[in-house]
Amino acid sequence: MPTLAYSAADTKRILGACKGKGVTVAHAMFALCNVAWSMMAREQRDACVIYSAANLRSQLPRDPSLSPESYFHLAIGYFNISLPSLLPPALSETELLWHRAQSVRRQMIKTTRSPFVVSRFKQEAAVRKERAVKWAKVDDGVVESRDEVKIAAPSTPKSAQSPSKALMGVSMLGNLDGMYKHANFSALKLKSLMTGSRQRSGGLLLFSYTFQGQLWISLGYDVNGFEEGLIEEFWERLNGLVRNVML
Fold first, then answer.
1. To 5 degrees, how large is the angle CA 167–CA 173–CA 179?
2. Are 30 and 99 in contact (CB under 8 A)?
3. Homologous superfamily, domain 3-116+165-246
4. Residue ranges per domain, the chain?
5. Rounded to whole angstroms, how far apart are CA atoms 243 and 247?
6. How many whole angstroms separate alpha carbon 132 and alpha carbon 125?
7. Predicted TM-score of the model (pTM)
């Protein structure tokens, strides 16, 4: 899980650069991943698809049994961001990055402000629940064979299917200094934190967050699941884009 940590001064410059272009660091992070991956030109695809999660806490009723300060109230839905994988020669690296960050902003607004967003995510959650319960029965030995697990997948017209499988997941955790109350630990200095998640074969999951006033980016993946040097090159290019364009 390689991790990049930018100084507090660099973090302010990065946030300022994003604000000056009318986007957030979250929008820019999707664009950074897209451009860094496209620069490697391993495969030419019509689109680069990245998935993420939207927080629905403010749009759903809260469990009254939880305290107002509890963070154990999970209410999220998943969505895709789709960007071109081609690098147009007419645009510079800087122009391309900000152009695609603005495209991400428009896609996010369209998704999160849709009047159907809550009902859609609740339906998708019901499907995930059904799958989780059935696979848990396999894991627990209640069902002996995976062949016995029948999960109905929603039918999708061919014309509506994604042109590419998702490259990776991007999780924007926000400013964690509001969660980790540094002043409450007078005898300790919190220096860093480690994210982690279960990963499917060949999966990538990038976390980005602010902690101790610094921007952190970490990438979770299985080193045995990718061509040697592929992810290392992507990671170097992503860091290079941050430093060349945003600092």
1. 160
2. no
3. Nonribosomal peptide synthetase, condensation domain (3.30.559.30)
4. 3-116+165-246
5. 5
6. 10
7. 0.84
241: nearest Cα among 19, 30, 17, 36: 36
Q: What is the rounded average pLDDT for all residues in the chain?
A: 85
| Range of weakest confidence among 193-202, 218-227, 238-247 | 193-202
CA angle (15 as vertex; 238, 11 as ends), nearest 5: 70
Q: How does pLDDT run across 199-225, given as a tens digit for each residue?
A: 666 789 999 999 989 999 999 998 888
- Local confidence band at 17 (pLDDT 50, 70, 90 cut-offs): very high
Separation of alpha carbons 221 and 31, rounded Å: 20
Phi, psi dihedrals of residue 105, rounded to the nearest 5°: -55, -45
Question: E strand or H helix at 238, and its extent?
Answer: helix 230-241
Looking at residue 206, its pLDDT comes to 94
Closest CA to 208 of 177, 171, 245: 171
Sheet holding 76-83, edge to edge: 3-6, 214-221, 204-211, 166-175, 48-55, 76-83
